Amino acid sequence: MTNDRSLWEVKFVDAFVLKQKRSRYKALLSNPRKRNKILDRLNHNADLDFGKAIEIEPLITTLNGALEGYRVGDHCWMISDHSELDGQLLPTSQAIELMIDATWGTIMICPPKPIAVFREEAPLEHLYLFL
Fold first, then answer.
1. Angstrom distance (rounded) from CA 38 to CA 66
2. What is the residue-wise DSSP string for 102-123?
3. Count of domains in the chain?
4. Are 7 and 87 contacting, i.e. CB atoms less than 8 angstroms apart?
5. Which of 49, 81, 93, 117 could connect to 39 by a Cys-Cys bridge, CB 3.0–4.6 Å?
6. Structural domain boundaries enclosing 121
């Protein structure tokens, strides 16, 4: 697996962001000064193609089980409006725990396909698995 964050963010955008928003997401995610505009959208108006997602229970065991069948890699990239998570490459087990506990809009990108998990901003409890 490559450790190139921008590569995996582009793959995520191409696979799961609404077609009419992809170029904007790519431009803003790659610009450190403007990245926060997209990160804030994760809290309120995520432009994701929910037709490619299934809603799952926001539990560690449920998320572990859901990802286990897809043979995701040992590490996942995070996109998050929580500054300590955003841009981090984390072991999958740690990323899952942080995903469940997230209080801001957060995305976990799991190579090699990619598969992604989206968590809405609290107090919403929705967790979506994008395939």
1. 27
2. --S-EEEEETTTTEEEEEPPTT
3. 1
4. no
5. 81
6. 5-130
